[in-house]
Amino acid sequence: MKRHGLNNVVELVGRPRPRAEEAHASRRARRIVAVGGGKGGIGKSLVSANLGIALARAGHRVTLVDADLGGANLHTCLGIAQPQGTLSDVVTRGARLETLAAPTGIENLSLVSGAMDALDAANPRAQARARLVEQLQTLDADYLVLDLGAGTSLHTIDFFLLADHGVLVLLPEPTSVENAYRFLKAALFRRLQQAAQALGVAHLAEAALGSQGSAMRTPGEVVKAVAEMQPDAAAQLDRSLREFRVKLVVNQVRSSADQSVGRAVVAAWKKFFGLDMDYLGAIAYDDAAWQTVRKRRALLIDAAASTAATDLVTVAQALAALDRPRTGR
To answer: ∠ CA(32), CA(35), CA(41), 5° rounding?
Structure first.
């Protein structure tokens, strides 16, 4: 993929799910939200935990899932002890996900904890991963919020692409933007690969991707190349890419320049790839955030009046608004 500089970087894509309409119909109002980004330290767990609290307080039935299989800490952000049953029980012992959802002390909110040190769970095999995905898609909740681990492992990328709402968290710093670029570039390759394979045009997509040497083409260029041989498949591939619409949150904003990062990222994505991204909002840098983490308390519980807590509620409202039925024309 051509690189357009740090100020213009946002490359994203997700794996299309076969029969997307049927999957959504079977889940009715249920929505899967996956919170991801680059490396650790950008506030994914803080956002996930408090997003779950805000949605639960709004009356939605929410299950938080700590999908960081090798370094779970979502329970700490909620201010509770780690539940005995964890996500690794699904991966390694075939447990049912619904039996692992533990109460959090917050109405409408439960938690499925991840493993903190189970190496087998941190690198689940394909069959176990498929079983986990199937259970995530059928869990009884209005919102299923996945707190993803750092990095670009296969299960992390697939969880992000599985979601109805893939929420990208980044800091307004060059290193964070770089890490987000790597994360989304990995998702881009994965989505194109699986979409093309499902449509039977993997050979055409691979040829298009490799036709410029080491420089990866944009999704639009790949679609155009496929269209020369398989126009119907290309139309479906294009539709699949356009249906993947990432939601952006900028964390730890300190200045007016930081405030502009989110809009700039959204505009760059639209300019260079012709695809839309939803900007959910910015979360202010706030001492209350790290203070509550140190106290092992949830921000929306321990410092509900703080600026960061107010911003997180606004982000949750913006996310929930995307799921409201549209009326009129």
So the answer is: 165
pLDDT score for 216: 55
> What region, left, alpha or beta, does residue 206 occupy, with left being phi > 0 and alpha being psi -120 to 50 degrees?
alpha
For the beta carbon of residue 59, count every other beta carbon within 10 angstroms: 11
H helix or E strand, kind and range, residue 49: helix 44-57
- Report helix, strand or coil for 29: coil
Reported as a single tens digit per residue, the pLDDT across 197-250 is: 999 999 998 888 876 544 556 788 889 999 999 999 999 999 888 888 899 999
User: If you write DSSP's letter for every residue of 226-281 in order, what string do you get?
Assistant: HHTT-HHHHHHHHHHHHH---EEEEEEE-SHHHHHHHHHHHHHHHHHH----EEEE
What's the one-letter identity of residue 212?
Answer: Q
Q: What is the pTM of this model?
A: 0.85
Residue 283 corresponds to which amino acid?
A: I
What are the two backbone dihedrals, phi and then psi, of residue 250, each rounded to the nearest 5 degrees? -100, 120
Degrees, nearest 5: CA angle 255-276-204: 130
Please tell me the predicted confidence (pLDDT) of residue 105: 93
The H or E element containing residue 129 is: helix 126-138
Q: Which of 11-20, 191-200, 237-246, 249-258 has the highest mean pLDDT?
A: 249-258
Percent of the chain with pLDDT over 70: 83
Domains and CATH numbers, the chain: 6-10+19-172+247-320 (3.40.50.300)
Contacts of 256 (CB under 8 A, 6+ apart): none
CB count in 10 Å sphere of residue 30: 18
